[in-house]
Write a structure and sequence with these properties.
With about 550 residues, the chain is an alpha+beta fold. The chain is built from 17 helices and 20 strands. α8 packs antiparallel against α11 and α16 packs antiparallel against α17.
């Protein structure tokens, strides 16, 4: 890895030597910025404290994606740090929508029609103009049942999207998306959808280049085939080694990057550790909680820790339509033996909040502590319930295979701790089956997992995403689990069209109480994110509570060291 870092530094230095000379004449040395404002290779004025352009290389490390076509293959790019595409709207560090491919938008008085005005002069990386027709093609592709997009329900707010995706309308052109001209896009919704800017700023809503897809099919995101429309474009993809992104001179929007390169080095999930970070081979890294105490006490690393909200929930799902979890008493018993306080204190070392419901902190509708009386630790009640269900002290209860999705050491430790709680308190045994991302998600949507430990992170900060998207009943293949409750479905359906924010929040809380009380899932914890960022990584902000958000790749830069 040291040699890989030296190689990338050499490449970066050679590639940027001419750029530095052309852009600033006499570049400043480290610690000595030049007198004249410097611009980078795409003409963006660099901050005064920025290092020379030859140093504007951000290095990260993660697993290698299968493809970058997350629009209809949402788990293919799992682990990718950056998608080189620009949606109608971007997101800032704290998940709030900001202008992207669309400069502005208007909403009709009744709230059913949204008009987006695209930026003139925008171009794809191959020079073609970015138009409203590209987004029409994209949204139709994303809901077309022929695409087999397991995340198509994300677009069900769009007029006719549900009916098209479920085959009741065969003409995909009936989707409520149309181009008035090359730069004007209209989206019609089924009901007032005040959170639509959150939806169309989600990274998987990026425009897809029809001509590239029709020519290359599933391979359209590979090197030599890919066409993008953001401030970055792909320079190379070396399988088993790295992806390298560079600024795209075709891009004319508000999100031009400071960085001259973003290099994502590949590693297997099982090999994740902070050694490359400690060796200055990467500039940022996630913190495995198994190492948190050591990092916090380290004289240098302890100063480089950052904390961030996760907007995430970890929970167990049950296969509720087959024994033994078709009995709500068994589901509650499993839920009641989980000592969340101990898990958060001992295993997570304070990097988690006990979860008694689906919606995490950071949402207006968060009411987790109110549900502790329903899902909280109560082993005596669990034993009573199991006896009532016909399994006194666990006698006669089958050993349950519990699925873990590409588990890291902390996830496995939590699962093993709960395994011990089940055995000690109600005499039940579970075994574990670890599966890679693809295998796990395929089995999940096919309802083949009897008991699964999984997380859901918010796509956008609205309760619809945490409750409706994950728990509303849908057919096998379109829903993560088989739990269904008609009253819950009715409530989340009503909440979508509710225009009064306070009443809408109240409805979602009513729905969540049903989910919690019927034990659709056993909620365990809401994680708090910990990471490491080098002191020379600049351009991101901190909230008053000290937390940082996700990186905006076009705003960060390498500072003078």
């Amino acid at each position: 890895m040291r040699y890989a870092r030296m190689l990338f530094s050499l490449i970066a230095g050679l590639a940027m030597l001419a750029v530095v000379a052309a852009s600033s004449g006499q570049p400043g040395q480290l610690g000595q910025p030049s007198q004249q404002p410097r611009t980078n290779s795409v003409g963006k004025v660099m901050p005064p404290d920025a290092a020379p352009l030859s140093h504007q290389v951000l290095r990260v490390m993660n697993m290698e994606p299968r493809s970058l076509d997350s629009g209809i293959h949402p788990y293919d790019d799992e682990g990718l740090v950056m998608r080189p595409f620009e949606m109608l709207m971007w997101r800032d560090e704290f998940m709030q929508p900001v202008p992207g491919a669309a400069e502005r938008y208007e909403r009709s008085n009744e709230g059913l029609t949204w008009t987006f005005y695209l930026r003139p002069g925008a171009r794809w990386s191959d020079g073609r103009p970015v138009t409203a027709h590209d987004f029409v093609y994209t949204f139709r592709r994303n809901v077309d049942p022929a695409s087999a997009n397991i995340y198509a329900n994300f677009y069900y707010d769009f007029k006719n999207a549900r009916a098209i995706n479920q085959g009741r309308i065969e003409d995909v052109s009936q989707l409520g998306v149309r181009a008035l001209d090359d730069l004007t896009l209209v989206i019609e919704t089924e009901q007032p959808t005040p959170y639509l800017p959150y939806i169309i700023s989600f990274p998987d809503t990026f425009p897809a280049p029809r001509w590239a897809i029709e020519k290359h099919g599933r391979k359209w995101t590979e090197q030599g085939n890919i066409v993008t429309n953001s401030g970055f474009k792909m320079a190379e993809w070396v399988s088993g080694s790295h992806i390298r992104f560079i600024p795209d001179p075709m891009y004319n929007g508000p999100h031009k990057p400071f960085l001259e390169q973003v290099v994502q080095l590949f590693r297997e999930p099982a090999a994740a550790n902070i050694l490359p970070y400690e060796n200055d081979e990467v500039d940022m890294e996630a913190v495995d909680l198994a190492e948190l105490h050591r990092i916090q006490s380290h004289p240098r690393l302890g100063k480089e820790i950052v904390r961030s909200p996760s907007y995430q929930s970890w929970y167990f799902i049950f296969r509720t339509r087959e024994p033994p979890f078709d009995d709500v008493r068994v589901r509650e018993a499993f839920t009641r033996v989980i000592d969340r306080e101990s898990i958060c204190r001992v295993i997570l070392q304070g990097a988690g909040i006990p979860a008694y419901s689906m919606i995490p902190p950071g949402f207006d509708a968060y009411a987790g502590p109110e549900y502790e009386s329903i899902q909280g630790f109560d082993p005596e009640r669990a034993r009573t319930l199991m006896a009532e269900a016909g399994y006194p002290r666990g006698r006669g209860f089958p050993t349950i295979e519990t699925w873990l999705r590409a588990p890291n050491p902390i996830t496995r430790r939590i699962a093993e701790a709960i395994q011990g709680m089940l055995r000690n308190h109600i005499g039940v045994d579970i075994t574990f089956r670890s599966a890679d991302m693809g295998s796990y998600m395929s089995a999940l949507f096919d309802w083949q997992i009897p008991l699964g430990f999984i997380a859901w992170g918010a796509d956008y900060l609205d309760p619809r995403n945490m409750l409706d998207m994950t728990w509303h009943s849908r057919p096998r293949g379109a829903q993560r689990q088989d739990w269904a409750h008609p009253t819950f479905d009715d409530l989340v359906d009503r909440a979508v069209g509710e225009s009064d924010p306070a009443r809408r929040t109240e409805i979602y809380r009513e729905a969540e109480r049903i989910l919690v009380s019927d034990y659709g899932g056993a909620f365990v914890y809401h994680p708090i994110g910990y990471g490491l960022r080098k002191p020379w990584l600049k351009g991101y902000s901190r909230r008053p509570d000290g937390t940082v958000g996700s990186l905006m790749w076009t705003e960060v830069y390498i500072g003078d060291r």
